[in-house]
Amino acid sequence: MYSRHDIVWLTPDGWSEALAQVPAPLRAPVERWRRANWPAVVRRNDANLADGFVCAGIPLPPDRETGIKPRVALRLRLSSIDRRTGAFALARAVDAAPAGWRAALGLLSDLQLRVYGSLAMQAFTGLDYLTPSSDIDVLFAPTDQVALDAGIALLSHVAERLPLDGEVVFPGGAAVAWKEWRDARGSGRKVLAKRIDEVRLVSPDELAAALEA
């Protein structure tokens, strides 16, 4: 089962199919992406996606003059995927972060976070993704309620020093913005839970119960 933010490498036939879906103005940078053997990133599936396919995207670097972030949306046959991994480990991305971020990022090492977005792509490709307005998008997957509470507290603490964003991922794959979870817990408000095939409002208690199962 694929999850949002998974990283996938394509077969040669997969690249042929992918390039046929790329708008003409972006074909040259995507062709360079193919030659470098960089991966695509799994995104939420389109509503009308056929069986045997998964949705992914190629997040190209931002245009330094306009700030536009080109995103190439793809529909990939499962058979066109050569291999996949989970999202990029934060520990492997720290060296790509600005020097002023690194000490505070080190405070998060016990959470074994993964990272997506600009920091992950800069670490993976060596291209310039980070800008002064960039966030650090993390994925936090706690194993029980104690770990969840401790992790959210630590993320909140480090967010006083860094532009931390991202999601907490519950068993079964539902992901909620960690700040939204923190602010809604105990309030009775529902939170927006994202899975690869749906987005819906869910009670925090329902998600927390998955940690106890």
UniProtKB/TrEMBL annotation:
Domain of life: Bacteria
Domain Phosphoribosyl-dephospho-CoA transferase MdcG N-terminal: 4-84
Pfam (any one): MdcG_N
Phosphoribosyl-dephospho-CoA transferase MdcG C-terminal domain: residues covered: 90-203
InterPro entries: Holo-ACP_synthase, MdcG_C, MdcG_N
Keywords: Nucleotidyltransferase, Transferase
Record-given protein name: Malonate decarboxylase holo-[acyl-carrier-protein] synthase
